[in-house]
Design a protein that fits this description.
With about 325 residues, the chain is mainly alpha-helical. The protein has a two-stranded antiparallel ribbon. Helix 3 runs antiparallel to helix 4, helix 3 crosses helix 9 and helix 6 packs antiparallel against helix 9. The longest helix is centred in the middle third of the chain and has 27 residues. The chain is globular and about 55 Å long. The relative contact order is 0.17. It is found in: Cell membrane. InterPro entries: ABC_transp_permease, LivM-like. Keywords: Cell membrane, Membrane, Transmembrane, Transmembrane helix. GO terms for molecular function: branched-chain amino acid transmembrane transporter activity.
Length: about 325
Amino acid sequence: MRAAWIAAGLLALAVPVLLPERHLAVYVLLALTATVTVGVSMLMGYAGQVSLGQASFYAIGAYAAGLLATHGLPPLLGLLAAPLVAAAAALLVGAPLLRLRGHHLAFATLAVQLILLGLLSRGEWAGGAIGLQGIPRFSAGGVQLRDDLGYAYLALAVLAVVMLVYRNVVVSRVGRALRAAATGEAAAAACGVPVGRYRLAVFALSAAFAGLAGGVYAFYLGYLSPGSFPVLLSIEFVVMAAVGGLGTVAGPLVGAGVITVLVQALTLLGTQPGMPGYAPAVLSYAVYGLVLVVAVLYLPRGIVPSVHSALRIPRGKS
């Protein structure tokens, strides 16, 4: 499996150079989406928690980086602050919310996102419904990223860092304790596992992943608005994690890649001559439901675990 990971890494490094410039934006957004999905997969697959508000932490990281940069602070400082602010927000809301379980927790996290979008759309400090404008390009050490190629490698570097942290967490003692708590909370607690504390830590770490991706997103687009972080985006992250396979390292990458490519293909189909103007949006929304239904019916554990079972690869090697 190590050879497969090395090959995947080399391919990911080569793709931005080989892609036509008009497709680099898709690559950047795919890498950022995969970064958020890694956190969702960790939260659902290892901590047994479902969040329908992950896009709220994506937004918090983006606005934190954007606001710091527009107020004169170095963009690098803004990018470093983005995951910290998102994690702090997750600790603040997670302490009371993580007392809930199952669909109650999912609805509560959804409510958090709706409240956040309401605050952003009415807050003059965040640009209100018009949005936050004038975010400078990312720069560090006197080097400024001016084109999509630079942001493609920045997004890839962020994804690599997040994957490294994710891999170390799931194979650590904390990761093993979380898996035990996800299958039997009472038994894990009886064995001395601090279930609540570990779950809150994973909730904050997944939010930090989303916040870091949000920071790159802010500098890449140079503009933020509440409409950039709809509720559908949170559902998209959950679908990607479920389709790729929960509880695997490669699952969120595969899920994000499959869904993004499908959505792009259907968007291209919907913009063909003769198609109605609403076709791209309808086709894009429909793909989430259809792919999720197909995955639940035929690949209930997700793509990666199913492939591993077919090839008889031990789960720990994923």
